[in-house]
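Suppose a colleague, Dr. K., hands you the sequence of a protein chain of 696 amino acids and asks what its three-dimensional shape might be. Before reaching for any lab equipment, you can write down a predicted structure in token form. Begin with the sequence itself:
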Amino acid sequence: MSVIQRIRDKGAWIVFAIIALALIAFILQDGVGRGGSGASSATTIGKVNGEKIERADFEEKLALQERMYGAQGAKREQLIGSLWNQEVERVVLNQEYQKLGLRVSSRELSDILFGENSPLRQEFTDPKTGEFRANDARQAFAELKKSKNAEQIKTINSVYITPTIEQTLRNKYQNLLIQAAYIPKWLLDKQQADNNAVASFSYVYVPYAAVNDSAVKVSDDEIKSYVSKHAKEYAKEEETRNFSYISFSAAPSTADSANALNLVSELKAEFAATSDAQAFLTKAGSEVPYYNSYFSKARMQQANKDSLTKTPVGGLFGPYTDANNYVIAKMVGTKQWPDSVRVRHILIATADPRSGQEIRPDSIGKKLIDSIELAVKGGADFAALVSKYSDDPGSKEKGGVYEYFPQGQMVVPFNDFAFDKAVGTRGVVKADYGYHFVEILGQKNPNTVYKIAYLAKPILASNETVTAASTAAAQFALAGKNAKAFTALALKENRQILNATDIKQNDFTIPSLGPGRLLVRWVYEHGKDDVSEPIEIGENYIVALVSAVNKPGVLSVEEARPTVEAIVRNEKKAQQIIETKFKGNTLEALATSTGTPVVRADSLSFSAPFIAGVGNEPKVIGAAFNKASLGKASEPIAGSTGVFAIKTESNGAKVATTDATTVKQNLVQTARMSSYRGLEALKKAARVKDSRSKFY
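The predicted structure, expressed as tokens, is then:
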């Protein structure tokens, strides 16, 4: 339920006043060309072109995003990274807006808030007609202008007003870039000529794969030389670090697993004898919560559900392992239920399901739902009662109807009423956060459902196991206190040295290790060849050695080798192939010397440099349009996939299939699409000081 909807359900005038006050505050400023954050904290999380991003403001926005996206599975560390990028973009763009004089006037904001694309549509839409009630919204803003709840005003600003302003400014800026797209006549003429240029040629080809990689060694100096010649392509803006590490496992041992099995087995007889599975599990403790309802076989997630569903009522299955637990399952009961149900309902909420805060006293909720039940029995219109009283925004606009939903989707009392009662049944259902008046409208596909209790005990590492791992790690860190000793000790103890590369200062996750922010911070607080004390990550103790500090700028040989080595190797292969295989001045002679046939390529396009059966070869296709290649064999060409010699048979222009207008439209569209990369260019050009690692 949205912030506005929740407040509105308690009193529509409150939300109107909050939004109105936020709007009025904006109008008094006569529009916005958004500037600094306005926060007043002594701590600064970063700077963009000299403008500060304050931690207090950042934390407020982070908390809001956690509330908005946490329920969807977003992790805090993910939100920190994405919010930082958003803040850098915001500052960079706001600086551009100010340079250009871009603003959003109060009238513009009003038009957006009450227009077709209003962010308030959900809150002010007629549930029956689907029409946005713009006049109602305007009237609410005009009539109600006072509120003392500063926190709610801030929330409305954060969720609705500020994003609307920022998106409007961004659209204006983007439109300026799009409209600036211009194609000069010379470029149009060249593009048409390139599109229509075709050539036919014969060629001799020796692929680089003809020479084994093992026969061509690439030295560090050769890598360094190539990188220096292509410095712009192999430069990075941010420091990274590499570290080596030894992992000492503190995962449960065989003995620990046996102890967990014994623990659950000792309870098996008592579990079998009990008539109250829920009370027994509460007393004994179980890692799997007791679900006091039924599930069909199709809805079960367990891998051994075939065996579970064959267990007779009162019978046990197990022990077996599931999700690092030893489990014994007990069949509590079976029933015949539909697999899906259609209902309509009216919810009278007594508490907010997210915060737990009281919406109305339980006694008031009970009286109201009883009155609704009497009204329905007396012939009152159900949909009208939903529209007037229901606190469920998920069904309010649909007359309270939930179309066919499966078992286990609703809270247990609601679920059991809907699936256990017959079609046409009406009644009041009490749930944790309020009262429902429910009518069952339809049911489909009856099948057997099962109530199963699970006694689950976790397989945990004992103190002895954890102590052994931590002690071994501590002893290794003490003895392997430098790079030489670290490597020698790992060899002596037959321990595998693992490596983590390209770790950035603000990383939270380490490849192959998982969440490891503490280790990342240690790596950046120490220098090359330093060895860490044991650091606990998951079920392991890690002893790390800083193996490389990769400063910003041109890549080091170690960093560049994974991508550059193959390129340099192919260059050396090309030289070797040319010197040893390409002998002669004609294609026929070259075919004989290379042991390859002469191949014909017809009607290849200059704008699509692809040779069938070979691949993308722009240098070769480009050479085919060189007049010097007409009628005679070219010099050897080191292409993308091998070495070529070609003889152009013909080159020229084909009959144009695309008119100039279409070509121009395509070029303009390409230029406009390129404008969307303008933000990345601005961010790259900005002076960004990132101090997040001091705080997170």
